[in-house]
Amino acid sequence: MNPPDKVILQRDVEATVVPVGTKVTLLAGETAYITQALGGTYTVVVNGNMFRVEGSQADALGIETASATPVASGKPQTREEVEQAVWEVLKTCYDPEIPVNIVDLGLVYDCAVAPVPGAGTYRVDVKMTLTAPGCGMGPVIQQDAQSKVLGLERVEEVNVELVWDPPWNQAMMTDAAKLELGLL
Q1: Residue range 138-183, pLDDT digits in tens
Q2: Contact indicator for 12, 23 with CB cutoff of 8 Å
Q3: Which of 9, 50, 86, 98 has the maximal Cβ count within 10 Å?
Q4: With 70 as the cut, is the pLDDT of residue 70 above it?
Q5: Hey, what CATH class is 79-180 in?
Q6: pTM given for the model
């Protein structure tokens, strides 16, 4: 494992406290350690506390501002193609404390894609959970998933619902996720 990258904040930046989920402002000149840079967001440690910084704010970390998360090329046309694109984009969503995407963690329980009548577009309903019901990052991860799915071509409506039944457990992770986390 590589040591975190040390950076000096170039400007004040809004961040989210992990795992509480509250917004704060990190001040220019503070030292930050980037511990995770996945899915277009950054997890940093400042003064011993963990924060999530949006990719659009990466310039505050001295990093060229990230562009939108790339999705499979070509416009999805059929319901099946849209569903496949949804699963792909959900794999770009990460819990800021865990270096595995929410799909491989087994947090996404269901993805339903239905045509919007007469519009030529689709509505997507996602049911997902969290590793712990009290996680303050839940709304942040939920919004990340919703925004990324809504960014897909031909997707007009998105509802990402947090559910708690069945409760999540480690057996729901893919083998690749377990390997990444040292559980295999």
Answers
A1: 999 999 999 999 999 999 999 999 999 999 999 999 999 999 999 9
A2: no
A3: 86
A4: no
A5: alpha beta
A6: 0.86
Q: Nearest Cα to 34, choosing from 58, 6, 64, 1?
A: 6
Q: Cα separations (Å) of 15 from 56, 63, 97, 110, 169?
A: 11, 15, 14, 30, 29
Q: Where are the domains of the chain?
A: 5-61, 79-180
Mean pLDDT of the chain: 92
Identity of the residue numbered 139: P
User: Residue 69: its pLDDT value, please?
Assistant: 46
Residues with Cβ < 8 Å from 50, sequence gap 6 or more? 17, 18, 19, 35, 43, 44, 96, 97
